[in-house]
Amino acid sequence: MARISSTPKTSTYHALSEAAASINETNDCSVKAVATVTGCDYLVAHAELKKQGRKDRDGAFNYHIIEAVEALGYGAKRVSPRDFISRYPGRNKNLKSVTSHHPDRFNKVWADGKTYLLFTRHHVLAVVNGVNHDWSRDRAKRARMILEIIKT
Question: What pLDDT, on a 0 to 100 scale, did the predictor assign at position 5?
């Protein structure tokens, strides 16, 4: 397989990283993802995840993330990777899984005006209208679960 080209991080991701650094936070992909998909401030997402059970400088369980999203006024609907893969061009329709670089690679499919959380092994990232707002843009981290985030 061809090497994935390096993609710059988004301004949203940089702003969230600066907010994390200001409070000496690490292992906070869940906080950044929740802040991105809900449009709230980093500190609001941080406080909500803490309320749901996330410890400072530690990862969060998937259910903590989903509960935080719901507490911030959003719903989460599970989406099958096949929903995306079936719309990929040419022989890419035969892919078995979605990865973190697919929103950039197949942007016409992902730029649908919707917001998603992609859960990978030990990581979560936010995709908003086809843009991955995470450090994993140029990595092939396989999605184990995809949730569409919907304003309730």
Answer: 67
Task: Identify the residue whose tokens are 């809900």.
Answer: 38
Residues of the chain with pLDDT under 50: none
The span from the CA of 136 to the CA of 99, in Å, is 9
| Residue 6: predicted pLDDT | 75
Q: Where are the domains of the chain?
A: 11-151
Buried b or exposed e, range 61-96, using 16+ CB within 10 angstroms: eeebbbbbbbebebebeebebeebbeebeeeeeebe
- Cα–Cα distance for residue pair 47/111, rounded to 1 Å: 30
pLDDT confidence of residue 7: 81
Instruction: Report the predicted TM-score, pTM, of the whole model to 2 decimal places.
Output: 0.94
Residue 118 has φ and ψ, to the nearest 5°, of: -110, 120
CATH class of 11-151: alpha beta
Label residue 124 exposed, middle or buried (CB < 10 Å: 0-12, 13-18, 19+): buried
Backbone phi, psi, residue 151, to 5°: -65, 130
